[in-house]
From TrEMBL:
This is Transcription regulator AsnC/Lrp ligand binding domain-containing protein. Signal peptide: none annotated. PANTHER family: BSR5907 PROTEIN (PTHR43704). It comes from Streptomyces laurentii. It comes from the Bacteria. Coiled coil: none annotated. Residues 6-76 form the Transcription regulator AsnC/Lrp ligand binding domain.
Length: 93
């Protein structure tokens, strides 16, 4: 499974509608409205790298109001348990 984090700039007057439309795209598992440079973040999970082209430029970028995307492909996933353990290294109980 390949996970891509897609940072999305949109027309600010249509953020909720655009988020709903992106969320309905196959392989998009979550869409978050966020503060900062980007308006939305979408999590995309596909079986092959080639599938990213079908989902991101092929579907998400073509949604009316999407002004641009910046995609980051994940190398490895860490569970909350793993993160808690990593930050606890060296701390006494």
């Amino acid at each position: 499974m390949i996970t891509a984090i897609v940072l999305i700039k949109t027309s600010v007057d249509r953020i909720p509608e655009i988020a709903e439309e992106i969320a309905s795209v196959d392989c998009v598992t979550e869409v978050f409205s966020v503060t900062g440079t980007y308006d939305l973040i979408a999590m995309v999970r596909v079986g092959r790298h080639d599938d990213l082209a079908d989902v991101i430029p092929g579907r998400i970028s073509k949604i009316q109001g999407v002004e641009g995307t910046d995609t980051h492909v994940a190398f490895r996933a860490y569970s909350q348990h793993d993160l808690d353990a990593a930050f606890a290294i060296g701390l006494e109980s």
